[in-house]
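REQUEST ID: PR-0412
SUBMITTED BY: lab tech R.K.
PRIORITY: routine
TASK: structure prediction, single protein chain
INPUT:
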Amino acid sequence: MALTPSIPEAQRWLRQAKSDLQAAHNDIRHCCPNWVLFKVHQALEKALVAAVLCHGEAFDVPMGLVGLAQWLEAVEPKLRGLADEVKSLHGCGMDGKATQYPSYHPFPITPNEAFHSVDEEEVLKRVQGVLVRLQDHMGGM
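STATUS: complete
OUTPUT:
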């Protein structure tokens, strides 16, 4: 589904990103790190989409987080380093598929069992920092 770029649409996506981040925060230390990682993934994806929409670009959402971040870096040099941060967060387990589907893990591991060594609070803090950076960028447009 192609999104229609506009500031109000971008603001709508950013509001949902903040809601997703709050939902992740609510799950910290409740034995479900895969859900925290999934929710921060969703929050970051929506914040990146919001930032792209502010640039007046229509696109299909399934571009991938790194692709969105790279696109933003290309059009806005002040966002340099964004793609590297997104890649780093992915390396911490923030993934929309591996956090949900057993087929992304060796048998007999499930996503619920796969992420117990992740520092949920640190990942949340880092994603929150990216959201603030993107919100500041959007506010300056």
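NOTES: DSSP finds six helices and no strands in the chain.
REVIEWED BY: pending
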